[in-house]
Hints:
Blueprint: H1 19-30, H2 38-45, H3 49-60, H4 64-82, H5 87-93, H6 98-109, H7 113-120
Amino acid sequence: MLPCSHGNSKLERGVAMNPKVRVVVQLMKSNLHRKLTLDEVAEVAGLGHSRLNDLFKSEFDNAPLQHHKILRLQKACDLLENTFWRVDRIRLEVGYDHSHFFKDFKAHFGLTPSQYRAGHGNANLS
């Protein structure tokens, strides 16, 4: 079972991040409530799709949109642990439709959101 944060990016390990990637990650973190397009993130970085993909794979071992999905799932995980919000509200907060949220969450964390909360949730709120 994976924790909310993986700590596997270069930045989290104390290694400098490419400035163009840093700008895109900031955009992603500011838009956890919705999906982004590759055109949007490439435009912000001032890079082509291929170069942006290469930089992200170098920094995070995944493509930009996959990284954004992981950030959204980590945010959902954090909300499950630290709020009493219903799973449906959390799903909406991170910009997911019903079926994709449960499928992606379970694929990433190995548990449904409710199962994750049962094992991790709300201990910090007592």
